[in-house]
Automatic annotation (TrEMBL):
GO terms for cellular component: plasma membrane. Keywords: Cell membrane, Membrane, Transmembrane, Transmembrane helix. It comes from Fredinandcohnia quinoae. It is a multi-pass membrane protein. This is DUF421 domain-containing protein.
Amino acid sequence: MDFFQSQETLTSIEWILRAIVAFFLLIIVTKILGQRAISQLRPLDFAIALVIGNIIAHPLSDEDLGLKGSIITTSVLVVMYFWGVFIILKWPWFRRLVTPPPITIVKDGEIIYKSLKKARISIDVLLEELREEKIEDVKKVALAIWEADGKFSIFLDPKYEPLTPSLMQMETQPFDFPKTIIKEGKFNSKALKQIQKSEAWVISSLENLYKTEVKNVLLATLDSHDNLKVFLYK
C-alpha cells in the first residue's frame, strides 16, 4: 500500500493515512519555521505559508496526486525560506527588496494623505486602528506608523499620555502574577507546589470564604500575598 504515489483509486484507509501524514508534515514544517511564519506574516513569511498550505492541500483533495512530490517540494521551500532569511539578515539591499519600509501615516496630529495612498489603506482603516488603541482624536497622535507586517505602531503626544506611578514618583509593589490553582473543578498540583500550598488549605479556604466545594469552582487563582480569587460555575 504505497499511498505516497499517484493512484487511480484510494481506499478509505489510504485516504486516512494520507491525511494523517499531511497533517503531521504541516505541524513539523510550522514548528521548524517558527511563530514568525504564522504570526507576523511579512511578505516572505506570507508567501511561504501560503504556498506550503496550497501544496499540502492538493494531494488531500485529489487522489491522482501522490504525497511524495508534495513532501519534496515542501522540503525545498523550507530550505529556500531559511536561505531567504539568511540573505535578509546578511544584505540590507535584499531586506529592502522583500520587506517594505515602515510608512508614516500620522505625524504631529496631521494625516499624511500620500502615505495613506502608498500604504493602500483607507481613512476608515486608520480610524479603526485608533479606536482599537482607545484614541478618539487623530490630533492626539504624535506618530502613527504602518509597519511591514501590516500593523500600526501608534504613539500619543506626551501631553495626552496617561499618568503613571513613575511620573507621579509613587512607590509601587513588584509585579505579582497569580497562579491558577483550580481550573474547571480540578486542582493544579504543579501550581500548588510552586506556591507551597496544600489541597487541604485550599479546600478549607473555599469553605470558610465562599461556602463551596472544589467541584463548583470554574477558576481559582492565588497570589503571593494569599489573595484567593474564585469564579464559580453559574
